[in-house]
From TrEMBL:
An example molecular function term from Gene Ontology annotations: NAD+ binding
Transmembrane segments: 12-32
Annotated keywords: Fatty acid metabolism, Lipid degradation, Lipid metabolism, Membrane, NAD, Oxidoreductase, Transmembrane, Transmembrane helix
Database matches in Pfam families: 3HCDH (PF00725), 3HCDH_N (PF02737), ECH_1 (PF00378)
Domain of life: Bacteria
Pathway, per record: Lipid metabolism; fatty acid beta-oxidation
Domain 3-hydroxyacyl-CoA dehydrogenase NAD binding per the UniProt entry, residue ranges: 10-194
GO biological process: fatty acid beta-oxidation
Species, as recorded: Ktedonobacter racemifer DSM 44963
Signal peptide (residue range): none
Protein's recorded name: 3-hydroxyacyl-CoA dehydrogenase NAD-binding
Amino acid sequence: MSTTPYRIRKVGVIGAGVMGAAIAAHLANVGIPSLLLDIVPPDAKDRSIVARTGLEKALKARPAAFYTKRGAQLVTVGNIEDDLQALAEVDWVIEAVVERLDIKHSLYERLEKVLAPHTIISSNTSGLPAHQLIEGRGPEFRRNFLITHFFNPVRYMPLLELVPTPDTDPTLLPFMRDFGTEVLGKGVVLCKDTPNFIANRVGVYGFLSTIHRALAEGYSVGEVDTILGPSMGRPKSAVFRTADLSGLDTLAHVADNLYQNAPEDPWRETFKLPEIIRQMVAKGQLGEKSGQGFYKRVKQPGGGSEILELDLKTLEYGPKQKVRLASIGAARNYDDPAQRVLAMLNGDDKGGQLARETTADSLIYAATLAAEIADSVVAVDEAMRWGFNFDFGSFEVWDLLLKNPQVLEKTLEGRELPELVQRVREKGQGTFYVETNGVRQYFDFKDDTYKPVPVPAGSITFTALKASNKVVRDNGSAALIDLGDGVACLEFHTKMNSIDEGIIEMIRYAVEEGPKQFRALVVANDAPDFSAGANLFLVLMGARQGEWDMINSAINGLQQANQMLKYSSIPVVAAPTGRALGGGCEIIMHCNHTRALAESYIGLVEVGVGVVPAGGGCKELLLRHGADLERQKAGKTGGPFTPSRKAFETIAMATVSTSAVEAQELRFLRKTDRLSVNRAVLLRDAKADALQLAEAQAAGKWQPAQPQLMILPGSGARLVLEQQVDNLLLTGKVSEHDAVVARHLARVLTGGNCSPLTPLTEQQVLDLEREAFLSLCGMEKTQERMQAILMTGKPLRN
């Protein structure tokens, strides 16, 4: 039984700028209504225009702030003059106004008069100390106050830093940590009340030390971002592009705040902003928000655009230069990010030199400051990974170096090991992290012992399962793993989880043999993406060699494996995350239930490579739009043409959902499917759903699916769809081969030469899918499309 007085059903957000509006949007994403307030501008006819504009910008934001635009209905706009009293009805007030202490103090004074006794009040400040924010406030306000620092963009960046004060109610912090983890889907890090907390303290130091070095040593903007991007386990945006995305004014503010508020910092001078950035801010070159910063996008006369980069010497923009360095080439030879980083640090050219210098700078800083700013090395690492999308946190990189002494020596270039690193060598096991029986443990600098890395309650990891010998069977492409409680997990582990013979074989095994020892099955994996679909390389090679029987057999194998999932004698629950495209989407659609990560991008994209969905995707989307005999007889779907038309519109455009919520609207997921917002608990939640279905089956309340007959409209409807295709071709909106593919798709979705009066079996529709797929595979332009995707990762419009 919880003893906390806190609960969150409605939230007030004050400040409708980029962050405030995005926080309101994310609250809407998880079903929580909010009141978004801002100032009343002088002489405004619409007194809530500032908040309204903030909401409109959030609706237009790219990447999207809302899971679906319908979510905006949960945000009510207002202003702090007329609507402040309404905050008496909310459970949590988030202040996201301008970073000025006087303005925040003035607002808090007004808030204190209207808030209910247990209303949580938090600030989204990126660096102002919590103890300064509550100066002058009464005991109740102080008890309910903490900092909740979200990262931009709020929907996508996992990090949520929580900073309490000595007066914060001891029950509030665990409540907000659980709420942040389970409801908001965030990676929550508890921070000490030090300037700019953890992520910005370590991250901005790393950014600025890199910029100082680039200026001093003559590196270009493009060189820095290429050297310190994916090859170093970081996003493509690396340093300068990240500064553009977050805003140079924001970087300046954080740097100035650190310089002012961290006078004892041994590297304080690094936070002195380079004059070039001061000049850029003064000229309004703030990055993405102003259209130019270190990079500038210029529209070309014939359409399209070109990215220019700033010359750090002349401050003029010029074309982006291709950066080719041996160290980067060496790093790209590895799929494993750890091996890439080591290869880069070992490089003997200017790329390796910059990588070593900047890595040494940031690692020494993190190790020296860790105990001052955080309670553990885990907090520092999670802040860096979740706040900046790094593959590794600072101490995880230390471990890479500690395990590779030659690279460590080369990276430090004579610099001394920080005291904490010396201690982990002398009093620990030589690294900050160790693994014992599948349980990851960290070196606790408070008492020099190893302790388990904290994880959300009940979370399940594949690492721990495999270390505990829970693998029932593994054929190299996929494994069947015992999750406990009578639930098994079918896990894919091919590259990009592309579907090959091994995965199909393991699906068959799981469905045929699984019920002998399990009562439910989950389909999930540990990779960033659920599945990129069928193995396109094998299809292209088969087509070029005329191996039609092989392709036919492979597609039939996928179709029948999916049918087995659908008609399994025990419940099957899919747990997708990231991209689930083509065949990956089809596997999900054939499972009995889905527990999807909210950030799942699901779609039938086969037309992009010149074919049609042929693993049952056409069939299932038709059924989800009401093509089954029962609903057609009941007249619930507007006749047999409606499902065909709706499925055609979705598949012909290769539509991919921008969230799991949109996937429900597109019918790739059912309305009854459920969502989790935190990747760390997805497998736990999927297992719970599977158990619920298994118990329902035992109680006679759930039965395996039964085969369905389908009513499709036939050739007359096909002609209607083909006419639409012809119109698009005439107006130049599709290419000739797009039209060829679309006509094949129309034939499948309308049932070929069937009569709208004669029901079709699912197998008959599967046969139409396979026939169209094989026919298109034989075409040169389809093969060109497949090759383009494999070579460039980009679709070819031929």
